Amino acid sequence: MTLHISTEILAVIAKDARDKYPEECCGVLLGTMCSDSVRQVLQVIPVKNTNEVHRERMYLISSERIRDIEIHATQIGFEVLGFYHSHPDHKGEPSDFDRKAAWPWYSYIIVPVWAGKPSTIRSWRLADDRSRFNEEQIIEDKNERNDLHPYSPS
What is the mean pLDDT of the chain? Predict the structure, then answer.
């Protein structure tokens, strides 16, 4: 399983993690399936963490927001490939809470942020039986994309 993602998009994710520290940031990954095991992220949409408590260790994206983003993705010929979030002052591996809240099939990017500085970005996919996450290889595309569809989160 591999996730292709541009340097530019990885920088947007890292900036969101840095800007939201010490709270968890979160967002949605849009793109295309190249094959059963290869995905290409073509757009990232930072969203508001709507968790009312413990934002420093949990994130929540409202179902209405996800629905709106799914509609947007369909309109531009993409699909929701997964989500990203940060782990402030914690390792970049999924927590038990992450496992319980995740859905199989989606990619989950996690950015550890230590003292406000983003560290190595990693991606994970939940096993079909929901027992564990498997790490997904990130292939960084050095070519910047100029045809990304703009989207303003509300």
Answer: 91
